[in-house]
Amino acid sequence: MSWQAYTDNLLGTGKVDKAAIYSRAGDSLWASSGGLNLAATEIGKIARGFDDPSGLQSTGMQVQGQKYMLLRADDRSIYARHDAEGMVCVRTKQTVILAHYPPTVQAGEATKIVEQLADYLIGVQY
């Protein structure tokens, strides 16, 4: 399956309205659906946040110029929220998956499908 198909499938669930897959280092965009394209500084800060979340904790997470409040950050997952919408970011062996969910979706519903995709990619060595 192409990388684009993975982001399209996330949107197809109805739980995510924008998704992107970047390289683990955050230096290249592999696929994007729904218009989710981050500035190099934004994805770079997120990619570094998996190893050291202090920067995200102190200033929040920027996505397409919008500031999100950090809810959780560890070496696998970063969750952030802005009002009733949010971001789910999950790191696999080779990728960083980013997904935006709209106000009409519960955070747990979006998180579940993004984490499942990450589990699958990790299982196939990505």
Automatic annotation (TrEMBL):
<comment type="function">
    <text>Binds to actin and affects the structure of the cytoskeleton. At high concentrations, profilin prevents the polymerization of actin, whereas it enhances it at low concentrations.</text>
</comment>
<dbReference type="GO" id="GO:0003785">
    <property type="term" value="F:actin monomer binding"/>
</dbReference>
<keyword id="KW-0963">Cytoplasm</keyword>
<dbReference type="GO" id="GO:0005938">
    <property type="term" value="C:cell cortex"/>
</dbReference>
<dbReference type="InterPro" id="IPR036140">
    <property type="entry name" value="PFN_sf"/>
</dbReference>
<dbReference type="InterPro" id="IPR027310">
    <property type="entry name" value="Profilin_CS"/>
</dbReference>
<keyword id="KW-0206">Cytoskeleton</keyword>
<protein>
    <recommendedName>
        <fullName>Profilin</fullName>
    </recommendedName>
</protein>
<dbReference type="GO" id="GO:0005856">
    <property type="term" value="C:cytoskeleton"/>
</dbReference>
<keyword id="KW-0009">Actin-binding</keyword>
<comment type="subunit">
    <text>Occurs in many kinds of cells as a complex with monomeric actin in a 1:1 ratio.</text>
</comment>
<dbReference type="Pfam" id="PF00235">
    <property type="entry name" value="Profilin"/>
</dbReference>
<comment type="similarity">
    <text>Belongs to the profilin family.</text>
</comment>
<dbReference type="InterPro" id="IPR048278">
    <property type="entry name" value="PFN"/>
</dbReference>
<dbReference type="GO" id="GO:1903475">
    <property type="term" value="P:mitotic actomyosin contractile ring assembly"/>
</dbReference>
<dbReference type="InterPro" id="IPR005455">
    <property type="entry name" value="PFN_euk"/>
</dbReference>
